Amino acid sequence: MMLQPKFSWKDHYQFPLRWNIYADRSVSMGYHQILSPNSYIDNVNSYFATAIKSDKETQNYYFDYKVYNTNEKSFVLDGEATDLGKVIDHIAEVESELVGAIIISDGQITKGEQKQSQLKDLSIPIYTIGVGDTIPLVDIAIQALEAPTVVIKGEEMEINVTLSSYGRVHERVNVLLFKGKKLIGSKFLQLQGDGSLSNAKFRIAPQTLGENDYIIKTSVLADEINIKNNNQFFQVTVLKDRYKVALITGSPNFNTGPLKKIIKNIPRVELDHYIQQGEKFISSINKFWSTSYELIIFDNFPLAPISNRWQQILAKKLVSQKSSLFLVAGPNTDNKSAESIYPFFHVQHSKNMIEDNKSRQWYWSENDFILKHLYNDLFDSNNNENLFPPLHPKIFIETADNISSLAYYDNSSIPLLVSGEVDGLRSGIWTSSDFSTLYYKLTETEHQDISVSLLNNLFSWLMRTSGENELYFRVNKNSYQQGEEVHVVGSHFDNDLKNISSMTGYITLSSEENTPITYELNYNPINEQWETRFLAGKAGSYSFEIILENENDYYTQNGELFIDESQIELNQVSVNKEILQYISSLTKGKYVPWESRAEVIGNINPELKQEYIVKNARLNENIIGLALLIILISIEWYIRRVIGLN
Fold this sequence. Notes:
21% of the residues lie in helices and 37% in strands. The protein is built from 14 helices and 34 strands. The strands form six sheets. The protein has a nine-stranded mixed sheet with strand order 16-15-14-17-18-24-23-22-20, covered by helices on one side. An eight-stranded mixed sheet has the order 25-27-30-29-28-31-32-26, with no helix packed on it. Strands 1, 2, 3, 4, 5, 33 and 34 form a seven-stranded mixed sheet that branches. Helix 3 (116-121) links the parallel strand 4 (98-105) and strand 5.
């Protein structure tokens, strides 16, 4: 015991090793001309059965962009994409249990990455069986399309089209650009085939406002396998290059200067100023009636009730031109004259009046939808009572439905600012005659931009240059093949780039049959747009919602897209012999064509892995050994005592 004797012995273990066989179930496997889909499926099932007869330990799998046990996925050729990297990962996980692995595929990788370093580390051979035609079927496809989502009318935009061509293609094709059914551009491209890419560029200057629908089309080649990818639809939103604003001043006053300055500083705004002098205007009021305006502003106007004739002509102008209205009360505005235009603003004279005729403090209303979306970036709260100067109430109004009161005078129900939309026409009223007081009071202070931003945001909303439709996003197609990459790009047209870092964006796809899926949007500072990419999944019609948000702002856009049952893999229907040979050579396996598949299955035989493990034990560390030793010594002492040796 003092010498601490050590005993050593060997244990012999045996356990069976197996083969894993992986059969490609992606859609491209059903389009090879050398065998039909049913023939391929039947032959693979027969191959699986033969392998199990040769060695019952063999395990069979299907794969596309995932690996499946044969009992968890039906053997139908509808896989959305092919990812051989997932097969390599699966083999590596169980490498110690395998003799080798067999991959049956056409070798066309449409998703994932090659696992070159991982292949070198494998100690088992991988045999590959190449299925399919050696010459790729002919196909050309619009691989990518780059175009802005929103432009200004008349500005030139560039459209970049990338074409991919597969098979033995050495022909010229015509790339056509249509606006609706009208051909507006044409380019010839010389294709090289074998997966090469070719580019065509178009430059156009859109002139039609609103959403413009465009289609890119290519020629159809003889024997082309898939013509659904030969055209692509996209939309570009065209905004006005100029927004016309009319400022009608009844009598020049202290508000007129700040109003003109703010309006002229709004991008792409052209101002016409009409000043009343007696019964005439400078400039002529005839120009006002004949010109279409996005926004009409009444400044200290009218000085007297307008006539019925004036009301009728103005009503027709507003309806036909969809013009918005805004009234700024002035020192010469009175309730009687203002009442003659109240019907255009959907307000009426209020019986509640402030009698003391003094300037009063005021506050912003809370939880108002328009206030939340237009003014939340201007100030934090109403807590700073000294920030805004008291203002003088001039006209007293009550609002109707759909017209919101955005600000009130203290201790009253009299609104300072109202705005809203009725029957598609937007309007607003500033009821104080002291807008200039607010403007100049904040000048040269840290809050000097508040009064400017206040009217800037409101006028932009009235002119519909901003508001609920500030997102201009587009998916690169409206119809996709399963497994095809969906590219989402877009912008918030009037985005303040200083706030980009605080914004997050995402797109959510939903359909009646499938659980909603969300993908994150990332901002690309080079292109100054948001974008994301993902693979089209299950076939069907999808609606999507795009959201950009931060603590203060929330913008949404909705749309639809369709995923067809045809597959992106149809672009590459041939056996990629090179990649299959590469996999086998790195693992000391062998590549064979489909016709010689029996050569590989001949390697499948039962095989046992033998391991010898040397075990060691010290007597004084082994409880059982110590107990046995004590028992033996006790027996010896007892016997010696009985026979009288002690």
